[in-house]
Amino acid sequence: MKVTQVAICPSEASRNAGRPALTPELLAASGARYSRNNEGLEAILSKIDPAHLEKSVDSIFRMVDYGHQSIADMVPVAMFIDGISIWLAYYIWTLCPTAGGQESSTRYIKISAEGLIAPEHLGIAEEETGEWRALMSGCFDAYQAALEIWDQVAAGNPALMGIPRSLLDDGSDAARKKVMRMRRNYAFDRARYFLPASAATNVMLIMSARGWVNLCQYLLAQPLPEAVRLGESVRAELEIPAPRMIKHARRTDAVAGAIADEFAKLARRARREPLTAGEEGLAVPYLSVMPPEGISDEDFAADLAHHAHRYAPIGSTLPRTSVRFGWSAIGFAEIRDLNRHRTGAKYCPQIPKGFYFAADQMPAADMEKRTRLDGLAAIGRQATAAAARRLAESSPAYIYWTLLGTEFPFEHVTTADKFIYEAELRTGLGAHFRYAKHLRDALALFYERFPSTRGLILEGAAEPE
Length: 465
Description:
3 domains, 4-stranded antiparallel β-sheet, 17 helices
């Protein structure tokens, strides 16, 4: 695990234009002075003594201690985080939904077994290390075997990949490379369900110091050693650009208590709810909509009159409409992507429900390959069952026994305009086949309630990109 804070320096154009360059904390302190100064930026900067920059910052940052945490929102900090588990990356995004950033994608990159996080860093019990290593090794073997199966499927029937015929028939080197990339991604998309949540990934985030402080508080209060270690590393890097925030970036009893209570509820629920072994019939969608009083179906349609693309304007009724939607159980691979949406509140009680492995994507004519895939699924079900058993026993490290195909309940509460944006994005160009299906299922429920919106919502065909 490695965390690196990256500073933002002025561009050459900014220097040539004589624009001011401020440290992150001095930037925030200068912005905060607007609340008590209406003379403009030049007047504020003119009062800063270059020989005593710390004094200028300290006088403002004292107010953070008195509840003015919005000051810390003006302190931009970028960090690159290498070598954490896929699960921990997901957890970070649950805590930082509005951060900018990226994560290494299981849809475009082959993940290596060498990147598996060491069990002692994850909190795997010493007496279970041998069993865990053997299971994870078997899952990586299944991942490699599934990649080969899906590559054979793609080679035998290129039409399944949805690649335009014109591109397949194009003999140019550029077209050939593009087709090879699409074919590789087709296989990655369907084989990734065998990847362990304990496999290593990399994440980049840029957000305010307040966001980093909040992240540290939750990481340091976790019972999982990997999370605590990351919290300590982030805290150490945060001290470089925002030293005055460090006293806030600490473990608190309140956060630790909230995490412990939520996990206790999860374990109790896991003991009551049995694991479903199969992959079919788990992803049952639900949707509830609460429009403003007196609003009709036609009002929703009118809101979409100028909606030519997913970033185009939407009228005022849809943003005032609450939407709660979700699925009884979907794969962790899809949850990671759906969790990244910035708006509203997401709820994912990570109680294993089953194991999905893309068997529904196998052509009916490929019975031999379907049989091979079914054989591989045994280890996915074994890992999912092992995780469910350990959760019922109240072991926090249970999550590191799960795979990307392990299914959990997932719910999102937002507004109708944001729901429509998510549905259009997740069914559009380059969308993953499985979450495209999930969003189409949710859209079908929306159309039942508001039929006039059908055809106005820009539901895509998930074409490959």
